[in-house]
Amino acid sequence: MNKLLAVTTTIGSLEEAQKLASTLVGQKLVACAQISAIESFYHWEDAVQHDKEFRVVLKTTDACYPALEAAIRALHPYELPAIFAVALEHVYAPYGDWVEANCCPPT
What we know:
Blueprint: E1 4-11, H1 14-26, E2 32-44, E3 47-61, H2 65-75, E4 83-87, H3 93-101
Antiparallel strand pairs: 1-3, 1-4, 2-3
């Protein structure tokens, strides 16, 4: 089994999150995407910012990560989008097989 990843990004509106998730699943760069509303505090342009955002968690494989990161960067409206991956360990094998079967490495 390929190494499985949970890739996370944040985005400013539900509509943008839904469009990003749908596009990435449709391109088979991810097997699934989950969207949740969050509240973010961060330092930007020499000030503390506070915004409502949406976290998008994307399930994929290590082999798909480079193409996935490029797609997120191309689609994302932020100047500096948060994009990071966490390797998944101890994954239920049938679920891991499903993730692998539903995200194809780019050819």
